Amino acid sequence: MNYNNPTFWLLFAAVYAFYWRLRHRRQNDLLLVASYVFYGFWDYRFLFLILISTIIDFIGGLGVAGVELPKWRRLRLAALLIGSALVLCSNVRYAALAAGLVHLDAHAVLGALPERLRDFAVPLATAAVTLAYVAFLPWLYALPERARRKTFLTISMVANLAILGFFKYCDFFVGSFVNLLHALGVQVVDVRLLGILLPPGISFYTFQAMSYTVDVYRGDATPTDDLRDFALFVCFFPHLVAGPIMRASTLLPQVVHPRQRRPRDAEEGLLLVLLGLFKKIVIADNLAPMVNMIFFQYGRGGHLPTGPESLLGLYGFMFQVYGDFSGYSSVARGIAKWLGFDLIINFQTPYLSTTPSEHWRRWHISLSTWFRDYLYIPLGGSRGGMAVEYRNVIITMTLAGLWHGAAWTYVIWGAYTGVLLCISRALGTKEVRNVAGQRLRWLWRVLLTFHLTCSSYLFFRSSSVPAALHMGARILTDFTPTATAGTMLGLLLFYAGPLFALEAYTEGERHLERLFTAPWPRQAVAYAYCVLMLVIFPAVQTHEFIYFQF
Amino acid sequence: MSSSTSSSEAIGEAVAAPARATRIALVLLVVLCGVEAFARLELVRMSKEFEQFRSYPRLAAELAHRSGLRIALVGASIVHEDIDTGLLTDRLRAATRVPAHAESFSADHSFVNTWYFMLNHDFWQPGNRVDLVVIPFVGPSLYDHNEMEIGRLARFFTTVSDWPEVLRTDLDTTAERADFLLSNFWVSWAARDRMQELTFTRLLPNYKAFAREQQNLLFAQVFTKRAHRARSLVALERLLRTAHEHATRLCFVVFPTQRADWNGQPYAEARRVIEATGTDYVDLRDGGDVDTSIFADLVHMNVDGRAIYTRLLADALTPVLGPGPSEAGAAFAAGGAGE
Fold first, then answer.
1. Contact residues for B190 (Cβ-Cβ < 8 A; gap 6+)
2. pLDDT tens-digit profile of A137-147?
3. Tens digits of per-residue pLDDT, A490-511?
4. Per-domain boundaries in chain B
5. What SS3 class is residue B253?
6. Helices (H), strands (E): how many in chain A?
């Protein structure tokens, strides 16, 4: 269920109708239920994964902080997990069960229940692991402090990475390994991929849950002993499937403490939601067919687009991915504001950056800082000389590429981005500010950085590495102007131009008050433009948010 | 001093905010009403397709009141792109020695759901009976879950009495249902794709050619995605059942395209359901490679292809123009899917 789907807004309206009438605790309960309903819309079985992640990190955070859960609470958590596995993962055909109950048909009811031992595989495995862990916990609690903290942290990291690794990367690594064996002449007989369904947003919530335990370990966050609060921290629906990835130190206090209705939140929330929907529905979804058309031709072979057409297809993708992802973040922030929460700004006009490093400080800020704080700095960061620093940058960016998707194109995109960052650092490029006296220099650097970023996104979007290289070569060697390229440029300017100008004016979402404090006719023009574009120029076809797959 | 200043500013802001919001809301309302007025008063007149849709009830009535063979061609763009009605009637007249009249009732990029409501709207009305309704189709148009143009369905082919049926059978998602309901009240919303087209054809000289090229390239992906979601035929079964209830004679005709995946598809389930009702089913695809020189694009034919396939269609329809609906059809109308 997406923000561009009316069902979401119906659910949200139902939540909001009651939300501010409730006391703080009940508000949290309502948000927790709504979040699970929201996520369960994709596939209710995915809820089990989010619950596992939640419970592991809940116990882990408390364990790291030296808070021992009493036996009855441990047993209750075990019962919750095993019960959830039974309800969610034992192959009950709920539609048939409901129909059987409605018609009082015992045969239909029995037919809807699990019947083979295989149906209970997940609940049985869950019961075995959970009971072992519960039995093991007193021993872990009794460890010396340093060992206990490290053990709980390790369990949290391993469990989260195992979930992520299995659901996201299992087929990729198995497939790549088999391909490697084939390339080496080793014939592997009948290796079948598992065809695992990727749970939406798994990379986001596992990273968020994992960072909680790390933050508690580092002393950057205080753990909560209320499971419902922690569960809401993990699955808070406005940002659940595509971020921003929130830190415990920022979001958890907002969950735990009563929230206030602030005077400007309603208006700011409305503007953010409007801008977010605009970026997604008008920009990203409308540019998608044009982008698909160009990249599709490189994927299938045959007649190829000209260089200018390919370049505009690539530009189109840059604005599509930005509109898509920053649109989601804006809507998430807007909705959160209506509910009294503050989520961090995730994008800050990244295409106006003047160095690759600056781009990554302004693009997907919550993920960039996550990788910086939990991977780059622990690897040694810039300590230990240039060689170590460059190694760390390339490792971090390559893993960030892999985080985006289980494909070699993402890995190469990440590594290439890392190399660009290293070159930029080696050359000692400094950021240029857009101030009088150096505007031309600023513009040149913005264009250069944008095109370097574009070159990396060739790999990100292409169906294969050869297709990306082919397209890159075409852009650099073919300059035939065509009518198609002219139309593409016109569409790009029509859809993305005005919003880009508005974002430059408000510096992304950083200075939205410039719009609020502008004279009312100017505000009216901005609102009318956004609403009119949303009514008259939404894409004919809606598309899933690109970042849901990550 | 400063504290009193800031509190009075705060009060001033608090007073100003609702007034500002009201003014902005009023501007928005005026703009939206202006666009709606344009859509209702001008756009329908400017759009050839909308004018055409509005003429269908009149054309259907005129066709029904003619003497001789009365043939309605109902379907998507191939109705007007692949069939020459003049040539068709000439050839049928020569073959049957009866005066023949044919009229096209088409809606670009439409599917079986829309055709049902077109028939309901234009032919299943008292006095609008014709001798044969020919439904030419390509690809998985007879299957459920195709991406419909909902605004057009809402504004031109359905009335309030159709709403329960549309919401239950034809629309899959809440988004589609909301779109349909909105389209019934709000012409700007229903006709947004036409407004987009109008804007871009004026702003960008090459837009039409670009849009067609883009559509051709992306057709395969979109259609395959939707068609593979489910292979149910609920809308087709409804159309067949209602046609029998109204004693309307139907003939489904599959046309070839350059789409290899469509040409290779036997449409076996659709054919079984159609033939189980005693309805005629003609396959004009030769099953092998098609001559690409007769196509204007991936789906539609050029002038030569049009002449060739109109003749083939006339030849195929000649034996069809015999006795009325069969016993099997009556059984289907009474009992459902014709199993």
1. B150, B151, B152, B154, B155, B182, B183, B184
2. 888 888 898 99
3. 999 999 888 888 888 888 888 8
4. 1-46, 48-144+230-335
5. strand
6. 24, 0
Q: Tell me the chain B residues in contact with residue A293 when contact means C-beta distances shorter than 8 Å.
A: 213-214, 217-218
Which chain B residue is nearest to residue A302, measuring alpha carbons?
A: B217
Average pLDDT, chain A: 86
The CA R_g of chain B, rounded to the nearest whole Å, is 24
- Taking Cα atoms as reference points, which of A206, A193, A279 lies closest to residue A241? A206
Buried b or exposed e, range A258-286, using 16+ CB within 10 angstroms: ebeeeeebebbbebbbbbbbbbbbbbbbb
For the record, the structure tokens of A406 come out as: 């289980």
* Predicted confidence (pLDDT) at residue A164 exceeds the cutoff of 90: no
Residues 6+ apart with CB under 8 A from A338: A16, A265, A266, A269
Indicate if the pLDDT at residue A476 is higher than 90.
Answer: yes
**CB-based burial of residue B212 (10 Å sphere; 0-12 exposed, 13-18 middle, 19+ buried)?**
middle
Name every chain A residue with its beta carbon within 8 A of the beta carbon of B203: 490, 494
Q: Is the pLDDT assigned to residue A440 strictly greater than 60?
A: yes
Mind listing the pLDDT tens digit for each residue in B61-92?
A: 999 888 888 999 999 999 988 999 999 999 98
pLDDT 10s digits, A219-242:
888 899 899 999 999 999 888 777
pLDDT per residue as tens digits for the range A289-339? 899 888 888 877 667 889 999 999 999 999 999 998 899 999 999 999 999
Give the CATH number of domain B48-144+230-335: 3.40.50.1110
Which of B17, B28, B217 is nearest residue A531 as measured by Cβ atoms? B28
Contact between chains at A486 and B196 (C-beta distance less than 8 A): no
At A233, the amino acid letter reads F
Q: Which two tokens stand for residue B217?
A: 């390239």
pLDDT at site A237: 87
Distance CA A470, CA A301 (A): 10
Distance CA A383, CA A380 (A): 6
Say how far apart CA B91 and CA A181 lie, in whole Å.
65
Contact (CB, 8 A) for A57 and A17: no
Euclidean distance between CA atoms B159 and B181, whole angstroms: 11
Q: What is the chain A residue with the closest CA to B151? A: A540
User: How crowded is residue A205: how many other Cβ atoms within 10 Å of its Cβ?
Assistant: 27
Interface test with chain B among A535, A542, A544, by most B beta carbons within 10 Å: A535
Q: Which residues of A touch B (CB under 8 A)?
A: 5-7, 10, 263, 267, 289-290, 292-293, 296-297, 483-484, 486-488, 490-491, 494, 520-521, 523-524, 527-528, 531-532, 535-538, 540-542
Beta strand extents in A22-121 (DSSP E only): none
Q: For the ranges A91-100, B36-45, B303-312, which has the lowest average pLDDT?
A: A91-100
CA dist., res. A157 & res. A64, Å (int)? 12
Phi/psi for B284 (5° steps) reads: -90, 5
Residue bearing tokens 């609906």: B325
What's residue B239's pLDDT?
93
Smallest Cα distance from A296 to chain B, Å:
8
Q: Please, which contacts does A426-429 make with residues 24 or more away whose CB atoms are closer than 8 Å?
A: A426/A386, A426/A390, A429/A355
Query: Which residues of A are annotated as catalytic?
Result: 404
Tokens matching residue B214: 């883009």
Length of chain B (residues): 339
- Alpha helices (runs of H) in A405-480, residue ranges in sequence order: 408-426, 439-461, 465-477
Question: Count of CB atoms within 10 A of residue A159's CB?
Answer: 22
| Tally of CB atoms within 10 A around A252 | 22
Helix-helix angle A520-536:B2-38, to 10 degrees: 40
